Amino acid sequence: MEKSLNEKYPAVEAEKLMEEFTALGDDKNFWLYRTESVAILGSPDSFQIFDLQRPVQELLVVADSFHIKPLLRILQSADRYHILYLNREEARLYEGNRDSLEQVEISDVPTTITDALGEELTESQLRVSSYGMRGSGAGDKAMYHGQGSRKEELRNDTVRFFRAIDRGILENYSAPSGLPLMVAGLKEHHADFRGVSHNPALMDDGLMVDVGAMDLDTLRAKAWEKIEPIYLQRLSALVDRYQSARPDQRSDSLQEAVAAALDGRIAVLLVEADKHIPGRVDAEARSFKRGELSDPETDDILDDLAELVLRNRGEVVIVPVERMPVSSGFAAIYRF
Sign of dihedral through CA atoms 207, 208, 213, 218? Predict the structure, then answer.
């Protein structure tokens, strides 16, 4: 890293950046409590550390832009999902993928029945009426008239709570993200929620478990059993879409794909997960230059290509090698 930095950047700038990496390398406490892998992005203006939940290939890149392809695989929507845990009193939202699961800090959505219903929360409504009861030693007896059973009142409150949750999750999380939503909770809560839900992202299959009684990794494993078939189906659909497209609507030619990405023509870019093509995209020449990763002006052409597609609001999907439809490392589907 130091050698590459000194070749490209002024000594003072390179030294300052190296100090942060060196300090981190010597920080024993930092390395004691890490996840499966770590990504570190450093520049003169920022120093960011990302804990990753899946192993990645060791890679060092010094270039004029960050190498983000490993992060795209973590953050892409292809295998991500939401879990909505419900009981009569509260709701929790989780977001995860095959490797990790985290609770989402919900905003703009009531997370407890008290927050949702407030003063409308039903209290036990019992009226007492006394009737004179004549009979041998009967005396006066009080008769209690309830307006609906307590059980019915509680269920009505639960349904109203679930309706508020459904509306909030749809508007603030499902609609913006497009992620599938899996409900977790006791059997009766599944039925009540599905009876009021209008969320098109709601999965038919859920988890009938008490989330409060299990750790996150167990919950993630149970969720992935249900999500993996959906993930594989989506990858298969994208591969079919590529293979069935007309020759002028797809490409695995690097030169063609670079030009299409610069013009914003790529709708979907499939990128092989661990493939690297050392070099960089040359926007002015509307082409690319191959190189060696040890060169400070060299990154990964596939990484540059992915960034261009994302900037033009295309979709980038990182795909395992065994599911790629071509051997070039990428497959582009055009908008026009």
Answer: negative
Burial of 61 (0-12, 13-18, 19+ CB in 10 A): buried
On the question of pLDDT at 228 being above 90, the answer is yes
> Considering 29, 63, 97, which residue would you say is the last residue of a domain?
63
Note the pLDDT of residue 296.
Answer: 67
Distances (CA, A) of 135 to 129, 132, 230: 19, 10, 71
Q: Is 239 a domain residue?
A: no
- Same domain, yes or no, for 296 and 170? no
d(CA 104, CA 96) in angstroms, rounded, equals 10
At residue 67, the pLDDT reads: 87
Identify the domain containing residue 180 by its residue range. 81-231
Whether residue 35 has pLDDT greater than 80: no
Token pair belonging to 182? 């899996």
Whether residues 59 and 85 share a domain: the answer is no
Q: Find the mean pLDDT for residues 283-309.
A: 88
